[in-house]
């Protein structure tokens, strides 16, 4: 990412499908609100100290870790689908997060999200989550707020009373996977 430091007032940056391998030279983009870096070859999150980002997309990269997001306290939407992430981590400080997309990764459990009290949308489909056990504790901070959850194509979605269990955990849920409730 060269020559972008000359645009300190830039608010949206879209550099998807550019074969980028590293996140760099972002430190002068202090007004940046949205950063779209999907379909690149990025292996690690490095926001170069930017704390005001509200939307971040790193879909379809080569990430294996979520670390590097801890200081992004203004973040409202985070898209990390289609990577190789095996553990949910570095999320507890993202208290303004409304949407979290970690679908199509290698997750086996749901954790580090109990403090995300504003979370409305949680996309966990196409992972390796085997059971709904422990989900109620993991989502304790936002279970009343959540309106959409995707868990389809995980083993836990085949468990008996899957929909009923999620409706009980999330009393205001409007959508579970592709099923919308009135």
UniProtKB/TrEMBL annotation:
Lineage: Eukaryota, Viridiplantae, Streptophyta, Embryophyta, Tracheophyta
InterPro entries hit by this protein: Cilia_flagella_integrity, Leu-rich_rpt, Leu-rich_rpt_4, Leu-rich_rpt_typical-subtyp, LRR_dom_sf
Similarity comment: family membership: Belongs to the SDS22 family.
One GO term describing the cellular component: nucleus
Keywords, in A-Z order: Leucine-rich repeat, Nucleus, Repeat
Protein name: Phosphatase 1 regulatory subunit pprA
Species assigned in the record: Olea europaea subsp. europaea
GO BP term, pick one: response to other organism
Record-linked Gene3D superfamilies: Ribonuclease Inhibitor
Places the protein is found: Nucleus
UniProt cross-references to SMART domains, sorted A to Z: LRR_SD22 (SM00365), LRR_TYP (SM00369)
